[in-house]
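Data card: per-record layout.
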Amino acid sequence: MKLAIAQLNLVIGDLTGNAAQIMAAAQQAVEKGAQLLLTPELSLCGYPPRDLLINPSFVETMTATLQQLARDLPPLAVLVGTAEPNRQSQLSGGKPLYNSVALLAGGQVQQVFHKRLLPTYDVFDENRYFEPGQQPNVFSLGGWRIGLTICEDLWNDEQFWGQRNYATDPVGDLVEQGVDLIINLSASPYRAGKQKLREAMLQHSANRYNQPIIYTNQVGGNDELIFDGSSIACNRQGAIVARAQAFERDLLIIALDEAQRDLLPGSVAPAPKSEEAEIWGALVLGLRDYAHKCNFTKVVIGLSGGVDSALVAAIATEALGAQNVLGVLMPSPYSSDHSIQDALALAENLGIATQILPIAETMAAYEHTLGPAFAGTPAG
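The structure for this 380-residue chain is written out next.
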């Protein structure tokens, strides 16, 4: 059996567009012989949806979109991240939604699974919207018994961290259920060096429990958050046998070893060559997605001749293309010829257009207008 990881760049709130991305990935997965497609956490609505979840019509439309997607999919099983209403909340209390994953197959929603550990630290605020799931998530496909976790569910190995952060251990519970494979659907934000930590944690858990683990992450920039992708698969010994691209959309195929109940070696994309290269990839992706997802096509950057504006201009050029970047120079009476020449040389190296707007007269007009109001006060 083959599985496919769809490392998608999703748009928060764009249910139709995200469903189309999932559909396109499913068609590619079928062409490559996959029987199961994995998509990221909350892939249908994008992560983090935040207060969109408070709008009942948004949740209703998400449910309808999920059902339509199930009917439209080609012949394979697909795991789709969605928000599922908590039908018991009005009777017994609790949050009105679950952070869920739906198993779509045969034109229908076959099963729905709920995230068990809800993070409330750093950038996360999931307890505001979601009720935690209470049961281990298990399903069967192609003779394999598969355990499902959602993002934080995987981050509670007391041996790796030195302590438990939650009373519940979803991975340990799945091992007790006798699963053959553990998969994780994530929306794990980027920070410098985090991928090394993720891989160390996943390798430790795979080796500790003698369980193959497949980790699926989303990619892309959503406002202040950047998701780096870098989905991976570890075999029972904890060795990385597959890795998707960093900071890029990807479709990764993973073959299962039926006899050994393990993962066969697959495509392992190289990690960024250095921390500087990793940070550069994150900055370029974040700027590109912020512009595109806000429907911006061009940017204007003030060029001072200094290192700060030079770096921003280089990132913008890489992200959006030189033809979409305009550098504006605004020399004042205090600007040196050297700073102007440095800014023009930078623009020439990057291939971006420039415009020079001297501001000496503008500064003089401000001084003339505001002079009486500030008369007798010290300069600066």
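Known properties of this structure: The chain has a mean pLDDT of 96. The chain has two domains: 2-275, 297-374.

See the next section for split statistics.
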